[in-house]
Specification:
Order of helices and strands of chain A: EHEEHHEHEHEEHEEEEHEEEEHEEEHHH
Number of strands of chain B: 22
CATH class of the largest domain in chain B: Alpha Beta
Strand order of the largest sheet of chain B: 8-15-9-10-11
Largest sheet of chain B: 5 strands, parallel
Strand content of chain B: 15-25%
Number of helices of chain B: 14
Strand content of chain A: 25-35%
CATH topology of the largest domain in chain A: FAD/NAD(P)-binding domain
Oligomer: heterodimer
CATH class of the largest domain in chain A: Alpha Beta
Radius of gyration of chain A: 21 Å
Distance between the termini of chain B: 21 Å
Number of domains of chain A: 2
Number of domains of chain B: 3
Structural class of chain B: alpha/beta
Structural class of chain A: alpha/beta
CATH topology of the largest domain in chain B: FAD/NAD(P)-binding domain
Largest sheet of chain A: 8 strands, mixed
Distance between the termini of chain A: 39 Å
């Protein structure tokens, strides 16, 4: 494949990178777009998450990004011409509170959700247990439920985007690591082991690894990595219909259609190593037993690790950096569920300089200099 | 067992974690105590088995033997996580010896998932541990010496063998007279098994493999066909045989998952067990304190495994500072035994080489990954879609994500990738905890590091 200058170089072929590439190719046919990824297909955060999407948030921008994205997921098979579909399942999210403080957060978020037409409702502890009998009563005070929330298969979303990109002549290369960036004569060059790639514009979709590349052009963006680990059980009888989030346990639970139950468990830990840590199961099992004693006898099949990005206000970063033509899209652990909307917004920004979407003002990379941080109350860092 | 005996002899505190209920492993598998009785193996093999088990029983009081326990995870920091019934525990020994052995290699073909089709070693295990015949009328197939051994043992147990199909004549080993001389005790046993099969008048089909298994609910018949040197079916050679048991062995794959999970450097050699931890002459892996012994380090058979266990047990029990020269001198006898049997194993290896085209027996709707019901057609389209590594195929079609974690299907998928793309996968599928399922209740109850 030729290495002549590209219009846009996207680094990172996860949900953000591939979605942005596909939207750009749709927006301007003939655009020369290259996506590179240091790993192989679905080997990063997008292929390792809990597979859920929700519009139950406490902040307008998250609600809007997810509402738009969920509309996309509902028609992804047609839009991406992928007849196999992406295993969309909308059995709802049940967000649980185990303290009065958490319950009042849920209540105030509900008001904002209703303003945007999110069909969410408040439940008491009995309602929650009626919905999921496997739940424990310990400290449970209530929750909120939205039936439009659900899951997709991360692998199938990525595969459908990859195939759609290639049909639109986007060049996607795996196993290509960009070592550093440089800017000269109004264009960028990206150094790789296989040679230098020239591009007019660059979009970084490497999530937690963004700071490393930005440093090579003298930009400092406060993005950290947040390692996470997940557990999957053997297929078992239906126990958890909606996805569960417990704000206090820092756990999300998702029983997928083939019966396996997936637990994503967060805990404060630094590093970028994608591994299962030795003490993880010992840490997670008692918490899971407390939250969901009904799974005591379910055998754990496997564990895996992933890394997501963590920004100072735990919100995504979308926009142009202080270097003209250099853009970032950092997900802050919700890349899969916001990727369709982010792809549309970033493609308009990069190709047409369209800055109209209010999300771009809120999520600008400049906010860390001006101090305009954002607060999302409904966070469990899932 | 040999490694434990040696480590105890050298004064170590030893814990042995064994999946099985009684010591012996696969080759020297013991029946349930209530079922002890007639052995169907050659007397010399039975004698070796009893001699080793007796030596182990002699020291078992001096060590912590955990029957029915398994290691479900091993980590680079030296931790071993074990499950025993409804209890889990974390151990952190100074040295760990992985003596995990091998499993059988599966080559998928249409009908191979029917009940009644099983591994030859699996059929033999049923005979050894439960003293029952796994079928009434058997077809036995594959390559190497095991199909012959299993045929003879089934006959001795009163079973009926309708056919013995061997890919490559064991007679090919005659081209290596020196190797055969070195392995003369085993060769003698082989001739006796062959005599049993001959006396029973079992039809032998050399150069034939099972290409299809047929049956409604379970196996009713198998179609054998001759294959050429590359493994392609020769037209017009198909013949159907009625049977209710098809026992197959196409060689072995090392149980290498724990070594890889612990971070040991791995190598791949399909002739001696596929992916293996790279070890030195004393079984040391690339991870300090982690050793591998026996067939799980390299497929070489039970006699070498016993000598190897002694050598690796000694090395693990000895401080690294003592130096290899001293160990080599002390272990001269075991090292010589290991070398002598290796000559013979090299001859056996030739009969285990698989022609590449055998993997093409699959059709689009043949299930390749049994746990996730992944058919060859799906794998083919993932490969056509540019997903060429084991991890990438897994992320597309879920092969290897089920109960067994790819223990059965990964060698097949690796070979299918090699056939389709012309190059073998360079990396094994990332091995993840747990190697066997353990309940949340057991995990939540488990003991602290180092606790007993």
């Amino acid at each position: 494949m030729s290495n002549a200058k590209f219009d846009v170089l996207i680094i990172g072929a996860g949900a953000y990178g591939l979605s942005c590439a596909w939207w750009m190719a749709k927006r301007r046919s003939g655009a020369r777009i290259l996506v590179v990824d240091e790993g192989e297909f679905a080997s990063g955060a997008s292929g390792r998450n809990g597979a859920g999407f929700r519009m139950q948030w406490g902040l307008d921008l998250n609600i809007r990004l997810c509402q738009e994205s969920i509309r996309f997921f509902e028609t992804a098979a047609e839009q991406l011409d992928y007849p196999r579909g992406i295993e969309l399942k909308q059995d709802g999210y049940l967000v649980l509170a185990h303290s009065q403080k958490a319950l009042s957060t849920l209540r105030s978020s509900l008001e904002i959700q209703h303003r945007y037409g999110v069909p969410s409702e408040l439940l008491d502890a009995d309602d929650c247990i009626r919905m999921v009998p496997a739940l424990g009563r310990n400290r449970l005070v209530g929750g909120t439920f939205c039936g439009k929330d659900g899951t997709i298969s991360p692998f199938l979303l990525l595969d459908s985007l990859l195939k759609a990109c290639r049909r639109e002549n986007v060049d996607v290369r795996y196993g290509t690591r960009v070592e550093k960036l440089a800017r000269a004569n109004g264009a960028f060059s990206a150094t790789t082991k296989g040679g230098t790639i020239e591009a007019d514009k660059i979009l970084l979709c490497t999530d937690w690894a963004v700071p490393e590349l930005l440093a090579s052009v003298g930009i400092n963006l406060p993005v950290k990595s947040l390692p996470k680990e997940a557990i999957v059980t053997v297929p078992s009888a239906p126990k958890v219909k909606p996805i569960l989030i417990s704000l206090e346990h820092h756990i999300s639970v998702n029983q997928v259609s083939r019966g396996s139950i997936i637990f994503v468990v967060s805990r404060a830990r630094e590093g970028t190593e994608i591994v299962s840590t030795p003490d993880f199961l010992g840490f997670a099992a008692p918490k899971i037993m407390d939250l969901l004693p009904g799974v005591a006898d379910v055998p754990v099949l496997r564990t895996w690790g992933g890394v997501s990005s963590l920004t100072p206000d735990m919100q995504p970063i979308l926009g142009e950096t202080e270097v003209e033509g250099l853009y970032v899209a950092v997900s802050s652990f919700r890349g899969l569920m916001t990727s369709p909307a982010v792809g549309r917004i970033m493609s308009a920004l990069i190709l047409e300089n369209d800055t109209n979407d209010p999300v771009l003002t809120q999520l600008t990379p400049r906010r860390f200099q001006t101090g305009d941080l954002i607060v999302e109350p409904l966070l469990n860092q899932e | 067992m040999a490694a434990a005996i040696e480590a105890v002899r050298r004064g170590c505190r030893v814990t042995v974690i064994d999946d099985a209920q009684r010591p012996g492993g696969q080759i020297y598998r013991q029946a349930h105590p209530a079922l002890e009785g007639q052995e169907h193996a050659e007397p010399a093999e039975v004698a070796r088995k009893h001699a080793l088990i007796e030596r182990f029983e002699h020291v078992v009081g001096k060590l912590d033997y955990r029957a029915g326990a398994s290691v479900y995870a091993a980590f680079p920091n030296g931790e071993l996580h074990i499950a025993e019934g409804e209890r889990a525990e974390v151990l952190r020994p100074d040295a760990t010896i992985l003596a995990t052995g091998v499993r059988e290699l599966a080559i998928p073909f249409p009908g191979w998932t029917l009940p009644g089709v099983m591994f030859a070693g699996g059929a033999q295990a049923i005979l050894k541990s439960h003293r029952v015949l796994p079928g009434t009328r058997a077809v036995i197939a594959g390559c190497g010496p095991l199909p012959l051994v299993v045929a003879a043992q089934l006959l001795r147990a009163g079973g009926q063998v309708a056919a013995l199909a061997i890919l490559r004549s064991l007679g090919g080993m005659l081209a290596q007279p020196l190797s055969l001389w070195r392995g003369r005790e085993i060769v003698r046993e082989g001739f006796r098994y062959a005599a049993t099969v001959r006396r029973a008048g079992v039809p032998r089909f050399t150069g034939y493999v099972p290409v299809r298994a047929r049956g409604k609910e379970q196996l009713e018949a198998v179609v054998l066909a001759r294959v050429d040197a590359e493994g392609r079916v020769v037209a017009g050679t198909e013949r159907e045989m009625a049977c209710d048991l098809l026992a197959i062995n196409y060689g072995f794959v090392a149980n290498c998952e724990l070594a890889a999970m612990a971070g040991a450097r791995m190598r791949r050699d399909p002739l001696v067990g596929g992916w293996l931890p790279a070890v030195d002459a004393f079984g040391r892996t690339s991870i300090p304190g982690l050793f591998a012994a026996g067939d799980g380090a390299e497929l070489r058979g039970a006699l070498i495994a016993e000598a190897d266990g002694t050598i690796v047990g000694a090395a693990a029990a000895t401080a690294a500072s003592r130096g290899d020269a001293a160990l080599t001198a002390e272990l001269a006898d075991a090292i010589a035994r290991r070398a002598r049997h290796l000559e013979f194993q090299k001859a056996v290896r030739m009969t285990l080489a698989l022609p590449a085209e055998l993997w093409r027996l699959v059709t689009d709707d043949t299930i390749v990954c049994r746990c996730e019901n992944v058919r060859f057609g799906e794998i083919k389209s993932a490969l056509a879609g540019g997903h060429h590594s084991l991890n990438a195929v897994k992320r597309n079609v879920r092969s290897g994500m089920g109960w067994c974690g790819g223990r059965t299907c990964l060698p097949a998928i690796a070979s299918l990738i090699e056939l389709s793309t012309g190059s073998a996968p360079t990396e094994m599928m990332t091995p993840r905890p747990l190697t066997r399922p353990v309940s949340f209740a057991a995990l939540a109850r488990r003991g602290k590091v180092g606790a007993k």
